[in-house]
């Protein structure tokens, strides 16, 4: 009788072990990736450079500058030129370039210009603005989660419309803060480069 009891117990334990081994493994929920605009950062610097120069042939200078910008690793946002009899020709260019390329571009302009009428180089530290926006984003996210918790657990259906309005306001503010953070991130990676190219007034062709 004791042998049968021991054998029965052994079979029960064996079946339990097999069941545990064959039990499906619960799926691993991946940790959501943190958006790059929320990552910690030391400093956020925005750089830009703007020039107004004079050259004998603005269209040709514009073409040379386009090649120089692309060679520096930048890209054009816009470029245009204008020419008409009886008036000075001019051209303009706007581009995004790596911040470290600005000094080399300035040297290239020094060689092209005759002369430089205006030069403006700006360096702006917006680190505190970015940190404040990141904290604002976290606060809004937490508020939205708390609101959803109240919405799920509250039994008062009359409050649903109020919760809905508050959620819309939070979502709108979240999108606004995210847009500002993304803009700062993009501006810190690529500097603004703008130039206006004028022709000497003495070269304007007379109207016939």
Mean pLDDT across the residues is: 82
Low-pLDDT ranges: 1-15
Q: State the helical fraction.
A: 40-55%
Number of helices: 5
> β content, as a range?
15-25%
Per DSSP E runs of 2 or more residues, the count of β-strands stands at: 5
Count of distinct structural domains? 2
Would you list the SSEs in sequence order as H and E? HEHEEHEHHE
The end-to-end distance, rounded to whole angstroms, is: 127 Å
Strand order within the widest beta sheet: 2-3-5-1-4
Give the overall form: elongated
Estimated radius of gyration: 32 Å
Largest sheet: 5 strands, mixed
Structural class: alpha+beta
Descriptive report:
The chain has 208 residues and is of the alpha+beta class. It folds into two domains: 93 residues, no CATH class; 62 residues, Up-down Bundle (Methane Monooxygenase Hydroxylase, Chain G, domain 1). Helices cover 50% and strands 21% of the residues. Strands 2-3-5-1-4 form a five-stranded mixed β-sheet. It is elongated and about 80 Å long. The N terminus is likely disordered.
